[in-house]
Design goal:
alpha/beta; 168 residues; four-stranded antiparallel β-sheet; 41% helix; five-stranded parallel β-sheet; globular
């Protein structure tokens, strides 16, 4: 199951996102602004991020800029009421992977999420190989030769994040 972080300040929209993502077998995490999203990213492995732009404390542009500057490579989908070409250009230049204008067609959003995950090679490959060691995200296991170890979630996520970002 893929973890999707939704960054949206409207509680009603958060509820809708959560319901739709669960119906499509995704595991949603909800943050009300960019700062809350960063706190979740410190604790959880996130496969894809959906963010609004206009939010208090830290907007979606700033969140995207910070994530890309710090080497986060997960796909980012901006979903916002800002529809001008200038707004879209700014989002793409800061590092978003896709952009949708509200009101959103939920079926289209789910299709875009699937495409973004496929493009990120996450649908088929949720493993990292480092030498003779394999980390399997789906089973939280570390495999080295004949030895298999199941790690607690936090420890596995830390190891996975470190190996997913070599030389950083």
């Amino acid at each position: 199951m893929f973890n999707i972080l939704v960054v949206e300040d409207d509680p009603k929209l958060c509820s809708i996102y959560s319901t739709i993502l669960k119906m499509n077998r995704y595991h949603p995490f909800i943050a009300c602004n960019g700062q809350a999203a960063l706190e979740i990213l410190d604790k959880e492995y996130i496969d894809l991020l959906i963010t609004d732009i206009m939010m208090p404390d830290m907007d979606g542009y700033e969140l995207t800029r910070i994530l890309r500057e710090h080497g986060y490579g997960m796909p980012i989908l901006m979903v916002t009421a800002k529809e001008s070409f200038h707004d879209k250009k700014k989002g793409f230049l800061l590092g978003t992977d896709d952009y949708m204008v509200k009101p959103v067609n939920w079926d289209e959003m789910i299709l875009r999420i699937g495409a973004l995950l496929r493009r990120a090679s996450m649908v088929n490959e949720r493993k990292i190989t480092c030498g003779s060691t394999i980390l399997d995200l789906d089973s939280l296991t570390v495999i080295q030769g004949e030895s298999v170890a199941v790690l607690p979630l936090k420890e596995f996520n830390l190891l996975y994040k470190l190996l997913a970002n070599p030389n950083k």
